[in-house]
Amino acid sequence: MIFNSLLIANRGEIACRIIKTAKEMGIRSIAVYVDADKDALFVKQADESIRLSDGGYLDPKQIINAAKRTDAQAIHPGYGFLSENATFARKVKKEGIIWVGPSPHVISVMGDKLKAKILAEKANVPTLPMTSKPNEAKSIGYPLLIKAAAGGGGKGMRIVAKEKDLKESILSAQREAKNGFNDDRIFIERYVEKSRHIEIQILGDSHGNVVHLGERECSIQRNHQKLIEEAPSPALTKSEREFIGNLASAAAKKMKYENLGTIEFLYENKNFYFIEMNTRLQVEHPITEAITGLDIVREQIMISAGKPMSFKQNKITFSGHAIECRINAEDSKTFIPSPGKVMQFHLPGGLGVRVDSGLYSGYEIPPYYDSLIAKLIVHGETRELCILRLRQAIKEMVIEPISSTLNLHKKILETKDMADANYDIKW
Length: 427
Ligand code: MV4
Known about the structure:
alpha+beta
């Protein structure tokens, strides 16, 4: 037996998803919820639940108290919220509670985009030429991109097309970083205009084993909010896949990386450039689960309990193709969040169709949180079959009277660019 109880410090679809695996493993699942979520599915599905006061999902003290009161032996942070908060992870471990995630040290290093880059360079990961000295900007060339060390996910970035704009852009980027993250350190890279976003799923245990679980392509996004992700990337050849997968796992091994991680790259003209490393379970993990047949959360839980990984790299096989559509409760023209009561909820089914969602008929979607209400994931032999399956599943899916991005996905899946996989991060 590993541990017998797991507190999920999250809500919505990811809480439901983690609870599902906990149940399969015979682990008592504990949900924490604020009043707005008192009727939420994840609270109903958990074996136990405990109320937090408003803002509780972001309050380490409340979550650790809840864990102590329910005798939780482990905490899974999910994604977002406190999932990449090194201080919280440290506090959890100090209380003798198992943290289902990477070490606090690695979380804090990777949270600093400058330190992360320097560590990546040391681990022979290809990165873009960089400087943090404005007078060296010339060596980088234009257009260049200013990034905040404490930023990430697109926050605090500034494109500079000409030298005359550099000084002012650096000052405003520093101001924005100071205000946003209380840390005005910035660095400068060449701006890669047209590229794709490829990320490698990494898994490391506490016995020095590290594997990669292939790549995901996440280029179809809007304002840094991913919309559609797919695995494998239609842009990579088999040899490129092996090259970047092995490079990423070798780097993670060198960093003594433990638990789940994702190394993000820009892919331009057959070159990969490291941009960030995420130290959490990601929203889009189900497409990797589909093509590998692995339950990634189960692997995380086993690793966090000190178990060695049950497979070597050569045992990991990739079969078929998988695509995920993120369905948000937003108007699909204005993208304005549109919460409200779900009156009719019908899920698609059939071979290779998975929906991760926290919705049910009669559920009131609260306006306070991220607008993601469901993830529609399809798996199939080929990419073409996945697109057909997705279009059929979208037609079958009913979420009335909520306006959602279902219709947007329908339109994207009908475009020639999607059929030809002819897209990049600007698409
Ligand atoms: C870049 C870039 C172009 N050139 N870095 C966006 C957030 C973070 N993941 C890094 N990002 C980018 N870094 C250089 N030197 C373009 C982006 C970018 C992006 C990257 C991946 C996926 C979507 C994106 C959307 C806009 C910009």
